Amino acid sequence: MSAALTLLLIGSLLQGALCGEFKASMPQTIEVLRGSCVTIPCSFDVVDQYKSHLDNTCRAIWMIDQRTVFNSSNPQTSTNNRELRGDLTKKDCTTTLNNMQPDNGNNYFFRLECDNGLRYIFNDQISISVTDDPPRPTLTPSALKVKEGTSVRLTCSAPAPCLSHPPTVTWTPDLGESVETLQENQDKTKVKTSVVTFTASQNHHGKTISCMASYNKQDGSTESAVTSLTAHISYSPKDTSVSVRPSGPVPEGRTVTLTCSSTANPAVKSYTWYRADGGQETFIGTGAVLNIKAFKDDSPFFCKAENNIGAGRSTNKQIDVQYSPKDTSVSVRPSGPVPEGRTVTLTCSSTANPAVKSYTWYRADGGQETFIGTGAVINIKASHVNSYFFCKTLNKIGAGRSTNKQIDVQYSPKDTSVSVRPSGPVPEGRTVTLTCSSTANPAVKSYTWYRADGAQETFIGTGAVLNIKASKDDSYFFCKADNNIGDGRSGIIHIDVQGALCGEFKASMPQTIEVLRGSCVTIPCSFEIEDQYKSHLDNTYDPPRPTLTPSALKVKEGTSVRLTCSAPAPCLSHPPTVTWTPVLGESVETLQENQDKTKVKTSVVTFTASQNHHGETISCALCEEFKVSMPQTIEVLRGSCMTIPCSFEIDDRYESNLDNTYDPPRPTLTPSALKVKEGTSVRLTCSAPAPCLSHPPTVTWTPDLGESVETLQENQNKTKVKTSVVQINIVDRTVEFFSWLLLVYLSV
Question: What is the pLDDT of residues 440-450, one digit of tens each?
Answer without folding.
Answer: 999 999 999 99
